[in-house]
Amino acid sequence: RLCVPFTLAALSAMATGEEISPALQDSWGDFWLFRFFVNAAGYASIVVPGFLLIQYFKRKNYLETGRGICFPVIKSCVFGSEVKSAHQEDGSLPARAEPTEPSTARQVFKLLFCAAGLQASYLTWGVLQERVMTRTYGATDTDPGEKFKDSQFLVFMNRILAFTVAGLYCALTKQPRHGAPMYKYSFASLSNILSSWCQYEALKYISFPTQVLAKASKVIPVMMMGKLVSRKSYEYWEYLTAALISVGVSMFLLSSAPNRHVSTVTTFSGVVLLAGYIIFDSFTSNWQDALFTYKMSPVQMMFGVNVFSCLFTVGSLLEQGALLESARFMARHSEFTAHAVLLSVCSACGQLFIFYTINQFGAAVFTIIMTLRQAFAILLSCLIYGHTVTVVGGLGVAVVFMALFLRVYARSRMKKRSKKLPPGETPVQKV
């Protein structure tokens, strides 16, 4: 019995590059590697029976032979109600709703509204995320307080509110007739909650500015995978911006300050968790793109994914007994309760602002707003939590965001050029 905790403690210590202390040995169940496998086992206890049921209904040809009160539910979950749309021009986004005679003042007001909503939602979300994962609650002069450790509970809180908001929006507004088999949302849901878990957990090992820059450099592995797997071709400016992002991130990570706090030092565990976030998040976006070939709105996608996210996380939390433990933590610390609720509100509202901004102004404007948000998030984190950034690190951040803006500008120029191409010519594929 003693072999398992010591083995897991040794693995975690190797990952973080730290020696095993008696305190770590006592809390081996809190190591991220152990928690990852425990969470995965909880999800598997739901996924495996669900997979077997789906295979059973397909082998029995239930769509033609089934009947009874459960038939509509099983049909919707396993088979769907209509075929894919073969004529959807943009599978990931609905057509933008532009008025016939748009007023300049009205459009400017909408743009400011979208920018303010996105900035407020995600800047607050970033500040709260770092506060919850890196600071203690209930600290006094004699008591150091305690940290909240269960990242999965925070994912559950985010998803349950997003599920509620998306459900109400779909119920109150007219939506396309839904035809996708419900079980297909579970793939994007599983990768989405794993990427969110990695994102929260990584803050225990890296600083928030490092995490933001890692997200900004996600284009690099995407291009590598596109080149190796799909044999995609890229323009010279795409290679240039990817190289600039690499240089900027390297400058930031390799810069050091004499008074740099231990909690902001990037560890191997943090790098692994960031890699997990990028991998899972990339799968989520690609799978959702494939699902958009069915006739659905982005809010329907949000609802479907969050249905399974709530199911997976609450099932795993109940199996581990972590739901009650987190509820007790909330009861002990009212400040944490307020932070967790506000974190969920910002996450849900942010998703709605994303859909509205892309629908009204397109992906290019949205990317510019979110790139500015990342820069503001780094600045805000440094001001509030005292992260030290050297001159070299600051130049690295500037290089990364300069490359991102250059990428947005070049892509918009390529789109304008591709619209003027003669029929039959196809532009180079982009990431």
TrEMBL record:
Cleavable signal peptide: 1-17
Keywords of the record: Membrane, Signal, Transmembrane, Transmembrane helix, Transport
SUPFAM superfamilies: Multidrug resistance efflux transporter EmrE (SSF103481)
Subcellular location, record wording: Membrane
Keyword Transmembrane annotated: yes
Membrane topology: Multi-pass membrane protein
Segments crossing the lipid bilayer: 33-57, 108-128, 153-172, 236-255, 261-280, 301-318, 338-356, 363-386, 392-410
Single GO molecular function: 3'-phosphoadenosine 5'-phosphosulfate transmembrane transporter activity
GO CC term (a single one): endoplasmic reticulum membrane
InterPro entries attached to this UniProt entry: EmrE-like, SCL35B1-4/HUT1
Keyword Protein biosynthesis: no
Top-rank lineage group of the source organism: Eukaryota
Principal location class: membrane
One Pfam family it belongs to: UAA
Sequence similarity: Belongs to the nucleotide-sugar transporter family. SLC35B subfamily.
Protein name: Adenosine 3'-phospho 5'-phosphosulfate transporter 1
Classification lineage: Eukaryota, Metazoa, Chordata, Craniata, Vertebrata
